[in-house]
Write a structure and sequence with these properties.
α3 packs parallel to α4, α3 packs parallel to α6 and α10 packs parallel to α11. The chain has an eight-stranded parallel beta sheet, sandwiched between helices. The protein starts with a strand and ends with a helix. The chain is of the alpha/beta class. The chain is globular. The protein contains eleven helices and eight strands. Helix content is 38%, strand content 14%.
């Protein structure tokens, strides 16, 4: 049995819609409503956030609130690294998906020589850079950060020098860059991306298991194939963005997209992935109770979290 540690990151600086920093508390309320002692059972730590910056101007147009995001990524890096070095399994509950750059950096800092595979369960590719972003929101750039990807071939913006300096620092947190390789990245349920991201998806032939494939072949087969695809990796990180769920379910998130997976498919998928011995970290992100009704998104997220945890402690 692995010793688990919950890392709470109530930061939403990278998102365009407000409210995902409240997602962790919404998940805790869901646990209480289910009569679960989950949050009493496992030790947890909350990372200090910089959400006060939401009251100030966004600063850099093509990397909004980047100074705050950099601070958060550095803090998350330290906590995740420390957790792994203590032989604990980090379960990261996060606001927006930009925080995942810190989680990945923390894994690399703890295991610098390990080849790290990433399973990104998400409607979105998150491969933008300040050169290509249509929104400037850093939750759409988290994978580009850890891939050290600028994608100047698809450039549409002219970021100023200050933005580029911050971007360089973000990519080099922990003094390892890139943190992962394209052929060690797998998407599941990816279905919403811009031309700049599509260019990278095609160029690097990034593995994606779309919703249709999950329906056709089943969750078990897709999970096995995703893990086999990353067989050359030493450790694997699983990141679950709740907008991977279909828009009919995932109303309580900032960027819902139709044609996603069901709650049952998500639970079965995560459960199957988490039982693999190479998985070293799990993260769940982007629950936004301000957009929800009756805390349904957080309830779904808690059930998925529970399935993930049960697979870990029963492996």
């Amino acid at each position: 049995m692995r010793e688990l540690k919950i890392i709470e990151v109530k930061s939403e600086l990278g998102a365009g819609t407000r409210g995902s920093s409240m997602g962790i508390d919404a998940i805790k309320i869901a646990a209480l409503d289910f009569g679960s002692r989950y949050f009493k059972k496992y030790k947890s730590v909350e990372i200090a956030n910089e959400n006060h910056l939401l009251l100030e101007s966004v600063g850099n147009q093509y990397a909004k609130r980047v100074s705050g995001v950099l601070t958060m990524v550095e803090r998350i890096t330290e906590e995740v690294s420390k957790t792994l070095k203590n032989d604990e399994f980090p379960i990261v509950l996060s606001g927006d998906h930009s925080n995942a750059a810190g989680t990945i950096s923390g894994i690399k800092k703890a295991l610098p020589k390990a080849r790290l595979g990433v399973i990104w369960i998400d409607a979105h590719a998150d491969l933008h850079s300040p050169y290509t972003t249509p929104s400037g929101n850093l939750h759409g750039m988290s994978l580009a950060v850890v891939l050290d990807e600028d994608n100047v071939d698809s450039k549409i913006n002219k970021p100023d020098q200050e933005t580029l300096n911050y971007w360089y620092q973000l990519k080099n947190v922990g003094n390892i860059s890139p943190k992962i390789n394209y052929n060690d990245l797998v998407y599941i349920a990816l279905r919403d991306f811009e031309p700049a991201e599509q260019y990278l998806l095609k160029k690097h032939k990034i593995k994606n298991f779309p919703t249709l494939e999950i329906r056709k072949r089943g969750v078990e087969r897709v999970a096995i194939d995703a893990l086999q695809y990353l067989d050359q990796c030493d450790v694997i990180y699983v990141s679950f963005d709740v907008d991977a769920l279909d828009a009919s379910i995932s109303k309580g998130t900032g960027t819902p997209v139709s044609n996603g997976i069901t709650e049952k498919e998500a639970g079965n998928l995560v459960s199957r992935l988490m039982s693999h011995e190479k998985v070293c970290c799990f993260e769940i992100v982007e629950v936004n109770p301000t957009l929800d009704k009756e805390n349904l998104m957080a309830e779904n997220a808690f059930e998925i979290l529970l399935r993930a945890t049960n697979s870990l402690i029963n492996d």
